[in-house]
């Protein structure tokens, strides 16, 4: 592909992104009827152009734009991999990526779409591939993994140059292996998912242990049939 995506720039220039405290999703300022919002994260929002739908545009919050060059470099190192998106270019505040069809694992839980074991295996293989390229695959969570024809596609690599292991994937994998059967094929209420997400993100609390977190979460999932009890817990 060439740079046909540039036709979307005039519409993207009508948008700005603001970050929010406490690791909450960004805020989108401005509007264009030529753009469709397809994802909102804690650093950026992702738009698809109706004029060039083969591309998406990951626009960073004003105080996060330094990540653009970092993420672009990561994509260059990953090269052509079935596990990751492709980066075609960038401007001052956004990256240009290929549009990936599929459903995030977050939305799979909301919609009751079963997540096959193959997805877990694919993410493990994707992480190993990234390590072989000298990267540190981290910050892997439900919103940046797509279920795509029964396989996994990872759509955010912005933290792959940071050191350390945030354990997000290890915790997700353990949760899948030991607890997912409680909810497989069931629609999980948004309020419950957000309750669990915020509780997990508060794991900096000195009293947090993953075992205690999963024990509490499991009790909520086992009572999934009683929505009122879950949401008022």
TrEMBL record:
InterPro entries: Kinase-like_dom_sf (IPR011009)
UniProt entry keywords in alphabetical sequence: Kinase, Serine/threonine-protein kinase, Transferase
Superkingdom of this protein's organism: Bacteria
GO molecular function: protein serine/threonine kinase activity
Name of the protein described by the UniProt record: Serine/threonine protein kinase
Native organism: Niallia oryzisoli
């Amino acid at each position: 592909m060439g740079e046909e995506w540039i036709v979307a720039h005039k519409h993207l220039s009508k948008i700005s992104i603001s970050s929010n405290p406490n690791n909450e999703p960004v805020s989108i300022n401005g509007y264009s009827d030529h753009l469709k919002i397809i994802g909102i994260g804690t650093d950026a929002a992702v738009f698809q152009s109706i004029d060039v739908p083969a591309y998406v545009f990951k626009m960073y919050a004003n105080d996060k734009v330094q990540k653009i060059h970092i993420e672009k470099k990561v994509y260059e190192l990953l090269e052509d991999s079935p596990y990751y998106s492709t980066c075609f270019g960038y401007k001052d505040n956004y990256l240009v990526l290929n549009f990936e069809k599929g459903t995030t694992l977050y939305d799979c839980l909301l919609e009751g779409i079963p997540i096959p074991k193959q997805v877990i295996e694919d993410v493990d293989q994707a992480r190993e591939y990234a390590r072989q390229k000298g990267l540190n695959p981290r910050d892997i969570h439900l919103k940046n993994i797509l279920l795509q024809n029964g396989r996994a596609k990872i759509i955010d690599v912005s933290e792959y140059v940071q050191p350390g292991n945030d354990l997000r994937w290890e915790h997700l994998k353990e949760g899948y292996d030991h607890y997912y059967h409680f909810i497989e094929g069931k629609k999980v209420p948004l309020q419950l998912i957000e309750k669990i997400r915020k509780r997990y993100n508060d794991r900096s609390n000195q009293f947090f242990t993953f075992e205690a977190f999963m024990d509490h979460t499991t009790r909520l999932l086992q009572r999934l049939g009683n929505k009122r009890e879950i949401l008022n817990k």
